[in-house]
Request: fold
Amino acid sequence: MTALSRAQCAWRAVEDRWRSCPPAARETSRIMVLVALLALGTLIVYVTGGTRYAYPYLMLIPVLLAGAWYTWRGSLLVALMAGLLMAAIPLSVASGETQAALNWVIRLCLYLAIGAFAGCLFERLRQSHLKAERASRTDPRAGLPNEIALEAELSRLLKAPQRLDGRSTGVILIRIEDVSEIMEALGADACDDLVLAINRRLVRLGPNLLGCYRVSGAELALLLWPVGLDELNRIAARVVELGEDNLLALGVPLRAQLVLGSALHKSCDDTPGGLVREARIAMLAATEKQRSHCHFQSAFARRGVQNIKLIARVRRSLARGEFELHYQPKLRLADGRVTGYEGLIRWRDEQGNLIPPGLFMPKVENTTLIAPVTRFVAAEACRFAMSQEKRVSINFSVRNLMDDALLEELGEHVRQSGMEPSRLEVEITESALVHDLFAAKRALERIRSCGIRVSIDDFGTGFSSFEYLRHLPLTGLKIDRAFVEGLEHDRRARKLMACLIDVGHALDLEVTAEGVETQEQHRLLREMGCDRAQGFLYAKALPAEEVLAWHRERERPSHNQVSALSCRGAPSE
Reply:
């Protein structure tokens, strides 16, 4: 650290200590400093021989300092005192020669003029500083206090002594979930107007509400004091109800979808930024859990940190070869023979333990990391398909469908490998089609133009209408495991399954049922005419060598293809 940096740090420490002093102590200290400077200046002028010399100008130091502290009023007062003190000192102390009246009057007028100018200048500077500070603490579009103002007020409250009743400071973070739709339809001004409309409703929450702050375009923060956990939850419930009412924005009645996260001050180690961060973590947890409100729990933060660290390792782990593909067999129900496999990604850490896909894939799918991960999956699937002449299916996310470079690479990879394109199948979830059906259709047409098969995954859990099936270039659909569960016990489930199978066959699609776990489910699906099935009844997802060994064992003539079917292990997806 340089000498300048050390000096700056020391000065900031002095400023912080000065601001922490009580106001009365600060005022007393300032007055004492001004009096001391006036006395010291008078003494210097007297000791140096009188007002004949230039030392009287030292009296301008307290004049200027008073202007800085008390603006023009203070500087004029100190200037008057300095002029009178100088008038009392003779022109020459040694000879006792007194000053001419004109002499000290001119000096007094000079002190007053300089004091008035300096005081006005400092007043302008102070007003400019206050204006800039107010602007820095105010949202420019809505005029509400912003996050800087929130943290300043939180800092003040967190320093206050704890209450005996256990109630403390609470923060509720509110996000308008459908703000993008509102902005797209009505513009940014409608969003600002909506925020103000919500703010007008929020002020009715009661005396516990200290303020409403706009911390981002779509987020508001409520500062509450004093509150307990039960009060905080009740207030959050009332805020959620506000979103159910119509709110006017630019004269248009709107219904805002609000998601809330809350946090409560509990420890003396809490900081303003930390409390807001906890509220935001709780809000994100509410979004993930599809709830209107979540209160902060330490488990949310631990899981978030672990996920961040895990995702940060993905690209490095790809380069190190820590990812691998496991394959779950798909059987033809008509004769029980294996017709293909689904390639499922697995991550084996440095200790050789498998990291469950549920811990990293949902996050990876929402980032650009999904592209290199999907490239790895496609390359591995093609190599496996070349080695055993069976169809292999892989999963595509929404980002994959919209990635033109990835689609081009997929077709090029299939062409260069020399494999039959139809031995590779891409599975797309119904939810991936919701975002942009037209763009999804174009992407699927590009995939089909390469000869690659396309299937809808988790069929029946996405769109409420099957109309889209007529317009997409599909070759198959996979019925979600939710429709297979309880198939042997529920007559209505069997009717629904039969209907879904008929829908697929009516469109000339190959129908696959996933999640088959019992012999009875296997039998019922075969009787209903389902084409293929996969599930733990046959085998779980296995590494390439193990699944090929399983296949060889199954193809042995002595093997009973149906009655000897057994479940292989616990779910691993």
